[in-house]
Amino acid sequence: MLVPFLIVILSACWGSFLNVVGYRIIRGKTVLGRSFCPNCSQTLSWYDLIPLFSYAYLRGKCRHCTISISVLYPMIEALTVISFFVAYYQIDESYYFATFVFFSALIVTIRTDLETMLISQWTTLALIPAGIFFSFADMISIYPLNSILGAALGYFIPWAIGMIFYLITKKQGIGQGDFDLMALVGSFTGVLGVWATLLMGSLLGSLIGGIYLFLNGSLRRNIKLPFGPFLAVGAIIYTLYAERIALLLLGS
Question: Cα–Cα distance between 95 and 167 in angstroms, integer?
């Protein structure tokens, strides 16, 4: 029972740090320094930073200014806990460090895209060499050529889809950040990972996005929804269950 407990505690703490990274990196701020309220800029005490617990105890409001705190904070912490908890039991230990790096980058992109509809290239393009290196070092389960091709196709396929969509509708359908994100996914998961991630991301986006628009009475409005979080969740699911998904998609 000790190991699962430690995984939950450490993952929650890491998720709290990823919140800091996501909030600051997209604004060009250093990730070093004490945490502060984004509304009143008051430095926060340690007891206001306990992952999940502090948000619930404070009822989602800052202790100092009583302004509501974004629900993204507990959501990212919970997602980190779930992702790393399942990864501990699903991922081969020799691949765990690379998975840790990959999942951390994906979770930060989820945070930034949901909050600002922007994805930092520091968490996508900058980490593609790491994915390729991990493939050469046998720290992920794909060969180097698959990693390189995955990165190239991961960028090209959504770029091509976005270009076709633009030529037909004269509107931007997929952003630059999504191209970069899929290139990162390809470098860590290979060609099949790109295919599976795009498929699952599209299905999740259609389902959850449709529900969101319906509940908000926005079906006829021109509202933009970030696609990156659905792609990132799809990539996490694929990484955790790659063999089963491969069997399902390839049928052998």
Answer: 41
DSSP bridge pairs for 43: 36
Sign of CA dihedral 41, 46, 48, 50: positive
48-71: b (≥16 Cβ within 10 Å) or e: bbebbebbeeeeeebbbeeeebbe
231: alpha, beta or left, given left = phi > 0 and alpha = psi -120 to 50?
A: alpha
Cα–Cα distance for residue pair 194/183, rounded to 1 Å: 8
The dihedral of CA 155, 124, 103, 115: what is its sign? negative
Q: What is the full per-residue pLDDT of the chain (252 aa) written as tens digits?
A: 788 899 999 999 999 999 999 999 998 888 888 888 888 888 888 888 889 999 998 888 988 898 888 999 999 999 999 999 999 999 999 999 999 999 999 999 999 999 999 999 999 999 999 999 999 999 999 999 999 999 999 999 999 988 888 888 877 778 899 999 999 999 999 999 999 999 999 999 889 888 877 777 665 566 678 999 999 999 999 999 999 999 988 875
The domain ranges of the chain are: 1-90, 92-252
